[in-house]
Amino acid sequence: MSALHAGDPASFATDVLDEGPPELEHVPGVASRRPTKTCAGGALIRDSAGRVLFVVPTYKAVLDIPGGMTEDDESPKAAAQREIQEELGLSAALGPLLVVDWTPRNGVWSDCHQFVFDGGVVDGAVACDPELEGVLYLTLDDAKPRIYPSLHRRLTLALAALESGSTRYAEFGREV
């Protein structure tokens, strides 16, 4: 898969060419004054008992789901797939988008668009990244004291989206 696009790289390259030459600024400096948002892609992975897979990062005090921040010219889905490969050693064929969530600035972190994809069922996943202490399979209730409240809300929406087949849009984990 291309880092630019998780779908067919040949079609993506054609789409880029069809778009025409890169857009130029009509008023110099306008683009550089625009805010820079970050973007992250993650996966809701469950085990056969229905528990959610959480990673235990070494660089923060809370649990998270597999995934991470996008790199330049990388889609959220491609970022999630890359991070799952790095973190868990799994080649993830991610399913549909479950949640798009906007989170506000938090300390050193700028506001962010967070995409959660269906990661399917994986039993016995293990951490294979030095940035992780390990992985845990937990119910959302068991995970609640160990994750940010916004992630708990986001994952609650992701499970509802998985059940309904309908993508959810949220702001700080609250559906709007």
From TrEMBL:
It is an enzyme of class 3 (hydrolase). Residues 35-161 form the Nudix hydrolase domain. GO terms for molecular function: hydrolase activity. Its cofactor is Mg(2+). It comes from the Bacteria. Keywords: Hydrolase, Magnesium. Its EC number is 3.6.-.-. Residues 1-33 are annotated as: Disordered. Gene3D superfamilies: Nucleoside Triphosphate Pyrophosphohydrolase. This is NUDIX hydrolase. It comes from Lentzea kristufekii.
